[in-house]
Design a protein that fits this description.
Strand content of chain A: under 5%
Shape of chain B: globular
CATH topology of chain A: Non-ribosomal Peptide Synthetase Peptidyl Carrier Protein, Chain A
CATH class of chain A: Mainly Alpha
Radius of gyration of chain B: 23 Å
CATH architecture of one domain in chain B: 2-Layer Sandwich
CATH superfamily of one domain in chain B: ANL, C-terminal domain
CATH class of one domain in chain B: Alpha Beta
Number of helices of chain B: 15
Number of strands of chain A: 0
Structural class of chain A: mainly alpha
Shape of chain A: globular
Radius of gyration of chain A: 11 Å
Strand content of chain B: 25-35%
Largest interface: A-B, 23 and 27 residues
Helix content of chain A: 40-55%
CATH architecture of chain A: Orthogonal Bundle
Strand order of the largest sheet of chain B: 11-12-13-14-17
Distance between the termini of chain A: 10 Å
Oligomer: heterodimer
Largest sheet of chain A: none
């Protein structure tokens, strides 16, 4: 899966499943965690989704804005572990 | 005469080497504090208070993250004879300005003598103190990084000179923005609560309590901090932030320490059942659990079933599921279901076909009345406001005589909760006012409506906020319906986003959905107020219409 596909998959998951705003467009550099868009409960969901979808495990200690705060950063993280 | 300090002095003399608290951390190994360690750290903190001129009966606000300093600060304030009040630290998603404003308002009402925080947060607290603008009585700011333990000299400490009727701690119940009420509890009230509650949960020194609950909440502070320490029951304590990122930690702690008791809000049952991977549960043994007590949110049978289905194969007994109805104003527990016994259910009540789950029977020191709107006693099974009387009620809302007076009727505390009594069991059905309870946290819809109305593009005063029960999550989702000034879909999307951001950053509440609607969509009452329940019904009907 190339980075565009990963971005699209993640973006769709976040807007439909977490934000419940399917029409919402997420920009690649938009802060997700520090902005409060994704709260800690949904962060765990996102971690589980990534593991199921991309076979990449994100440790619980990494589920914070220091590890990734945007879709772009998350894509880099996923690709670096695939 | 029993005071916290008297009990601690005795414990320190009799069992100094017994483990009191096992502190768990995400990135370092567990730290076990014996009673000797705990009280030496606390005495070290007490001497710090002394050096800052804090006196007996002074309120000490504690804003610290999970860790030794938090534990020492609370018990150190107690040993010093001061009155600790633990408040939540600023989280990354809340705006610092908003936090500062709320803290300043709290300082003005509570008038603490000191505020204890960690060095990185000291500047924030200083700004709040300035904003509170208290010329004469500004609190002292004490930044603590680490506490130097000293051997406790109980005779010299102020705590032993406190009376049983003196206030020992404040618990700040979440309230409407800026108007938090500090529940003031006396030594006597807390001991009366422990005397009544300990037998109800069949507590003994062979128990082990495991908790991830925050200490600024009654379930964390009383059941999972004060009770174990005063009753010599070992406590395993982790950070709520670590738990929420990895709920498996709770199961690991129970398995490792042979935990027997833990308290959870209803949503945590669903959270644990759905967010913990099977492979992480390899080798986990939950058979030591005597009770997992569901408390602080409405209790759902479906949440218990999901929890049991997930964890039964790891040793969780169905008989370990238990329920409790509690509030800070009664120190903690009002009712408790029988330990090891089945939880009563009223098949005719509640949502769906599952029936309504009982919160158990009143503790022996509690009398319950169910009152009608005009405050007459209602018969068995009828729903009304739950009022209670006990020997462990609050002394007052601290410095809020107005709120204290309003809270009582005929000597009974008016809980604001709706419920009924059937065959001696108490069933809690909801709130008298439109309160949203999400993830164990009380949220006042008017606060969210106010915030939404501040966003450009929203008709001020044309907003409804309400909670919608989400069965998968085991708690309520926060929904905002707002009338838009524009009918352009892209503009509405932008405004919806702005509303979500503004509310999150200013209230620390995650909004599940913001629905922008046409002008005059919202139903108002004859007096011109937005009718929340009617609008919730209309919203649900529209949602159903879309999916059908």
């Amino acid at each position: 899966m190339n980075s565009n596909d990963i971005t699209h998959t993640l973006s769709t998951y976040v807007t439909t499943q977490i934000l419940k705003q399917p029409k919402r467009i997420l920009k690649g550099d938009e802060p997700l965690i520090s902005s409060g868009l994704i709260d800690s409960f949904h962060l765990v969901d996102l971690g589980l989704f990534i593991e199921d979808k991309f076979g990449v495990r994100i440790e619980d200690s990494e589920l914070n804005a220091d590890t990734f705060d945007t879709l772009d950063q998350l894509v880099v993280l996923i690709q670096s572990r695939q | 005469m029993r005071t916290f300090s008297a009990v601690l002095a005795q414990t320190c003399a009799e069992v100094p080497d017994r483990p009191a608290i096992h502190l768990q951390f995400a990135k370092r190994s567990d730290l076990t504090l014996t009673y000797g360690d705990l009280l030496s750290g606390a005495a070290g903190f007490a001497s710090l208070l002394s050096r800052h001129g804090i006196g007996q009966g002074d309120v000490v606000v504690i804003i610290l993250q999970h860790g030794e300093p938090l534990v020492y600060a609370f018990w150190g304030a107690v040993l010093h004879g001061a009155v600790p009040a633990i408040l939540p630290p600023l989280t990354e998603k809340l705006l610092p300005e908003r936090y500062r404003k709320d803290l300043a308002a709290l300082i003005q009402v509570t008038r603490p003598r000191a505020i204890v925080t960690y060095p990185e947060f000291a500047h924030e607290v200083e700004l709040a103190i300035c904003a509170a603008a208290m010329a004469a009585a500004a609190p002292v700011m004490i930044a603590v990084d680490a506490v130097t333990p000293v051997a406790p000299d109980f005779a010299a400490l102020g705590g032993l000179r406190r009376e049983a009727s003196d206030i020992v701690l404040l618990q700040h119940s979440s309230g409407s923005t800026g108007l938090q009420k500090g529940v003031a509890l006396s030594h006597r009230a807390v001991f009366n609560q422990l005397d009544a509650y300990a037998p109800a949960i069949e507590l003994s020194e062979s128990d082990v309590i495991v908790s991830w609950l925050p200490l600024y909440h009654d379930m964390g502070l009383i059941a999972s901090f004060v009770l174990p320490v005063l009753r010599r029951v070992p406590l395993v304590l982790m950070s709520p932030f670590d738990w929420v990122r990895a709920p498996i930690r709770l199961m690991q702690a129970i398995s490792h320490y042979r935990g027997t008791l833990t308290w959870l809000p209803n949503f945590a049952y669903n959270f644990c059942a759905t967010r913990i991977r099977e492979r992480d549960l390899d080798g986990i043994d939950l058979s030591s659990l005597k009770a997992v007590i569901n408390c602080s949110e409405p209790v759902y049978h479906s949440s218990h079933l999901a929890f049991l289905q997930k964890f039964a194969r790891y040793g969780l007994s169905p008989r370990a599921l238990a329920t409790c109805y509690a509030m800070a104003e009664n120190t903690f527990a009002v009712t408790q279901s029988a330990i090891g016994g089945p939880i009563a259910r009223n098949e005719g009540g509640g949502i769906g076909n599952a029936g309504q789950v009982s919160s158990g029977r009143p503790l022996p020191n509690v009398r319950i009345r169910i009152l009608s709107e005009d405050r007459r006693d209602l018969p068995e099974g009828a729903i009304g406001e739950i009022a209670l009387h006990s020997d462990c009620m609050l002394s007052e809302y601290y410095h809020r005589p107005d709120a204290t007076e309003q809270a009582f009727f005929d000597g009974f505390y008016l809980t604001g909760d709706l419920g009924y009594v059937l065959h001696g069991e108490v069933y809690v059905t909801g709130r008298k006012k439109d309160l949203i309870i999400v993830g164990g946290k009380n949220v006042y819809p008017q606060d969210l409506e106010q915030l939404a109305g501040e966003v450009d593009g929203v008709h001020a005063g044309r907003v409804a906020a309400f909670g919608v029960f989400n069965e998968d999550a085991g708690t309520e989702d926060v929904v905002i319906v707002a009338e838009a000034e524009s009918d352009d879909p892209a503009e509405r999307e932008r405004v919806a986003e702005a509303v979500r951001q503004h509310i999150t950053r200013n209230s620390d509440v995650a909004v599940r959905q913001v629905m922008m609607v046409d002008p005059r969509w919202l139903i108002k009452t004859s007096s011109g107020k937005v009718a929340r329940s009617a609008n919730k019904a209309k919203y649900l009907a529209e949602i159903m219409g879309q999916t059908a």
